[in-house]
Design brief:
171 residues, mainly beta, 13-stranded parallel sheet, 1 helix, 54% strand, globular
Length: 171
């Protein structure tokens, strides 16, 4: 049963080198209680290429209790309003379910031509620790409809908007 699997903690360990997207949904993370761990931001790179999940993300996290750590993520075009990593559920115009308890740690992000580096949209409880956004077409980080977000050791580089962190929508 999937319900039993959902409650089980799972770890995906990525070795050294580059992991390229095979299709648009390669890096759609909808499995709860999951850790994706690389060998280090200088050793493991996820390259989403020109793929953009739903026109919004190179890597889309839409499950609770997900940790991404010790890797670099590069996206040529994560979507105009998207992010190299975007944390968000799919909702409708009246409701956006919240993603709970997400950790992004020791990660480097690079958006080549569009979007944010990190986009936390509809999140309850996120820890962003030792994250470097090398390049973003918009702001380095977007926080929208989110509560309980903490930053520790955020470093930003080139930003098309000249902004490190923007807060969209609700306080």
């Amino acid at each position: 049963m999937r319900a039993e699997d959902d409650a089980t903690a799972k770890v995906i360990t990525l070795g050294e080198g580059e992991i390229a997207a095979a299709d648009v949904n390669t890096f759609r993370i909808d499995e709860p209680n999951l850790t994706i761990q690389g060998a280090g931001a200088d050793k493991t790179t996820i390259n989403t290429g020109d793929y953009s999940i739903s026109g919004q993300a190179g890597v889309l996290v839409s499950a609770d209790n997900v940790t991404s750590k010790d890797l670099k993520v590069v996206s040529n075009n994560p979507g105009v309003s998207g992010g190299v990593i975007k944390v968000s559920m799919i909702g409708d115009a009246t409701q956006l379910p919240l993603v709970e308890n997400v950790t992004i740690e020791n990660v480097v992000l690079r958006a080549e031509t569009a979007g944010f580096g990190l986009n936390l949209h509809g999140v309850e409880g996120a820890t962003v620790k030792n994250v470097t956004v090398e390049k973003a077409a918009k702001a380095s980080v977007n926080v929208a409809k989110a509560t309980g977000v903490t930053f520790d050791g955020l470093k930003t580089g080139e930003s098309g908007w000249g902004a490190d962190v923007v807060f969209s929508y609700n306080a």
